Amino acid sequence: MSLNNSEIDGGAGSPVIDQVDTPAADTVTTMARQAPVRLPETVRRYLVRGLALLAALLVWHWASSSGFNLFINFENVPGPLVVGQALAEALASADFYLHILHSLRRIAVAYVVAVVLGVGLGILMGRSRLAEDIITPYIELLRPIPAVAWIPLAILMMPSEESSIIFITFLGALFPIVINTVHGVEQTPKVLVRAARSLGASNAAILRHVVLPGALPSIVAGLAIGMGVAWFSLLAGEIISGQYGIGYFTWSAYTLIQYPQIIIGMLMIGGLGTLCTLLIKLLCRPLLRWQVEENDR
């Protein structure tokens, strides 16, 4: 059986294709017009965090305005509107900024010393069993002592109140940094150390190119934790100060029964501590760039 040309062409004078329909293109265009606009993941995450804080403010306002008293008593707790008004008045005062500057200066001095000494001791303890056996008893004995318990001894030991506050803040930041650094150094894979040594690397080269890069995630975690504990210790240390500091501002408000100022001091300590911890993470992010690249593979 054979087909002639007219049958193949669909008959004389009739084109093979009269019209080309593109339903797929129309569907894609329609879907593109109807597709919802999605926010970037980072924006969505921070939006959720902001909504969580807003929900906390609403609960706080409801509890204080209604006089909620069920195990937790909100009858004498000022609401967020009262605290916000008191905060506006505090921000208009120069003394309030002096409190902040004094606290930041104490944190900076104590934290830098804690980082230098803590990371150094942690590396030494992680690389030397003898050093670990000598230093560990002191670390484990002193680490559980709260910052408040150091106040009388700090007053006796230090030449001034300022140095006492810095010393107490330094102790708060030191121990988390030491512990996390030791953990990071000890968790370095031994096979990498043996491989580097078999290739002729010196102890200094192994420390720089193998041990420290492997321990950096744990060290950075210790730096972040140490910053938070430093602010916690600062509050205890500034109780003995008779002039300036956010901790002194909060304690003075307590003695004068100024409830809004107490909450302002607490929120300022939390906010400044959060910003300082975020700054530490941002500064350390370039050191952990290899970790991000590894996760992206």
From TrEMBL:
- Supply the Pfam families for this chain: BPD_transp_1 (PF00528)
Annotated ABC transmembrane type-1 domain residues? 100-280
Name the PROSITE patterns on file: ABC_TM1 (PS50928)
Membrane topology, record value:
Multi-pass membrane protein
Annotated transmembrane regions: 46-63, 107-126, 138-158, 164-185, 206-236, 256-280
Subcellular location, record wording? Cell membrane
Q: Which SUPFAM superfamilies does the UniProt entry name for this protein?
A: MetI-like
Q: Mind listing the UniProt keywords for this protein, alphabetically?
A: Cell membrane, Membrane, Transmembrane, Transmembrane helix, Transport
Domain of life, per UniProt, equals Bacteria
Name the GO terms of the biological process aspect: alkanesulfonate transmembrane transport
**What Gene3D superfamilies does this protein map onto?**
MetI-like
Q: Which GO terms describe its cellular component?
A: plasma membrane
Q: Which InterPro entries does this one have?
A: MetI-like (IPR000515), MetI-like_sf (IPR035906)
The family line of this record is: Belongs to the binding-protein-dependent transport system permease family.
This one is known as Nitrate ABC transporter, permease protein, putative
